[in-house]
């Protein structure tokens, strides 16, 4: 299992699903551990009723069906699928509309979904915000790549609700997104710049002389 997880950490995201399926065939006794510990790229489905795409995750899944945040219906259809209460559903509808605007302004496109449900243990609620952005061709620099973000707000905090829950949740998400971007810039891009700046040409290149003109 340790070797399998080590292998998955080294796989490019585009090959993660193929690699996971291969490992599930090789290690059937560890299927539950692999499925629970391996993160795959977010998948997208189309809401046929509203003609809008939505993101699939464990938070909108019931059995083998997924609930659309736009229609509140499961695909494939599920008669007794779990749905939020009327209060939570109204908050979910508003959150999806607001988060769509945030996504367009912050990510310049992509797909977003928000799922809200009751927290039976604490009497509050939990919200999951997801974004999937294909970075291919963004501003002409990136040839391949994507950004998958999952924010699950599940904490107890005392905050003013004068402006509504969405404002508070939005501030949390924006702060976390900023930290993630800064981390990427400092760790990955910073390391790349360091490597490029410290590279030196081999001695034979330094000793080469250009021919006289």
UniProtKB/TrEMBL annotation:
SUPFAM superfamilies associated with the record: Subunits of heterodimeric actin filament capping protein Capz
Domain of life the protein comes from: Eukaryota
Main location: cytoplasm
PROSITE patterns linked: F_ACTIN_CAPPING_BETA
Classification via InterPro entries: CapZ_alpha/beta, CapZ_alpha/beta_2, CAPZB, CAPZB_N, F-actin_capping_bsu_CS
GO cellular component terms listed in the entry, alphabetical order: cytoplasm; F-actin capping protein complex
Transmembrane segments: none
Keywords in alphabetical order: Actin capping, Actin-binding, Cytoplasm, Cytoskeleton
GO molecular function: actin filament binding
Annotated GO biological process: actin cytoskeleton organization; barbed-end actin filament capping; cell morphogenesis
Compartment list: Cytoplasm, Cytoskeleton
Pfam families documented for this protein: F_actin_cap_B
Subunit structure: Heterodimer of an alpha and a beta subunit.
Job description of the protein: F-actin-capping proteins bind in a Ca(2+)-independent manner to the fast growing ends of actin filaments (barbed end) thereby blocking the exchange of subunits at these ends. Unlike other capping proteins (such as gelsolin and severin), these proteins do not sever actin filaments.
Family note: Belongs to the F-actin-capping protein beta subunit family.
UniProt name for this protein: F-actin-capping protein subunit beta
Organism: Panicum virgatum (Blackwell switchgrass)
Lineage, top ranks: Eukaryota, Viridiplantae, Streptophyta, Embryophyta, Tracheophyta
């Amino acid at each position: 299992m340790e070797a399998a997880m080590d292998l998955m950490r080294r796989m490019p995201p585009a090959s993660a699903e193929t690699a996971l399926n291969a490992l599930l065939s090789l290690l059937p006794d560890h299927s539950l551990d692999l499925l629970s510990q391996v993160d795959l790229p977010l998948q997208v489905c189309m809401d046929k009723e509203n003609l809008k795409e939505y993101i699939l995750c464990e938070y909108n899944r019931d059995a083998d069906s997924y609930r659309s945040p736009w229609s509140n219906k499961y695909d494939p259809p599920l008669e007794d699928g779990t749905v939020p209460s009327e209060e939570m559903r109204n908050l979910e509808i508003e959150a999806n509309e607001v988060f769509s605007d945030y996504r367009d302004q912050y990510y310049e496109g992509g797909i977003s979904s928000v799922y809200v449900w009751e927290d039976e243990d604490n009497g509050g609620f939990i919200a999951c915000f997801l974004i999937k952005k294909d970075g291919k061709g963004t501003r002409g620099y990136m040839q391949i790549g994507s950004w998958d973000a999952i924010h699950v707000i599940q904490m107890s905090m005392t905050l003013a609700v004068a402006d509504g829950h969405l404002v508070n949740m939005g501030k949390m998400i924006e702060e976390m997104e900023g930290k993630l971007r800064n981390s990427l810039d400092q760790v990955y891009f910073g390391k790349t710049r360091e490597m490029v700046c410290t590279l030196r040409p081999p001695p034979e290149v330094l000793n080469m002389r250009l021919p006289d003109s």
